[in-house]
Amino acid sequence: MKMGPSQRIPSSPCTNCGKEEDGASCVGDAEEDALPNPGDFCICIECGHAMVYGDGLVKRDPTAAEVQIMAADPRILAIQRARGYVMKDKAKWREIARGNIERNLAQCVEEDGADAVFDSAYTLAVDALIDAGCAPDLAREIAKEEAQVFAQP
Fold it and tell me: What sign does the CA torsion over 24, 25, 28, 34 have?
């Protein structure tokens, strides 16, 4: 069983946490780059909630019958296991970003003024994450979230 490449799909929120997601990857034995279809299962990478793609690939909660099918589907277990690794990595990257911002933010505020806190914190975090080996897209996502925390009055 392997994971296919990421595919762009219409953005749709998780029915549990509300996280907007516009990407999908198939998991299975097929060699083709499968796009999801209505009725296919999906897992929110943010909170782990299991859902089903509906019409227009809008996510919906599964029916009781679909939950039973999901519970026996080895692909769902593989996705949840992979999600655990991703979340562990994200926690590591968040710690690096947070530590770098905390170490350098006072100097940034002194040099650039309080209005530039978000920009300074964001730049510091992105640079630190990329230097530590984080993928650039993930570095920007995590840096934005962490910089917003530090920029709040």
Answer: positive
| Cβ count within 10 A of residue 34 | 16
pLDDT tens-digit map of 105-135: 666 666 666 556 677 777 777 787 778 777 7
Distance CA 32, CA 142 (A): 31
Q: Output the pLDDT for position 110.
A: 63
**Spatial separation of the C-alpha atoms in residues 65 and 13, rounded to whole Å:** 22
Are the C-beta atoms of residues 3 and 25 closer than 8 Å to each other?
yes
pLDDT above 70: residue 39: yes
CA–CA separation, 18 and 20 (whole Å): 6
**CB 132 within 8 Å of CB 93:** yes
Q: Where are the domains of the chain?
A: 2-72, 88-151
DSSP 117: H
Lowest mean pLDDT among 2-11, 38-47, 113-122: 113-122
Which two tokens mark 79? Answer: 């996705």
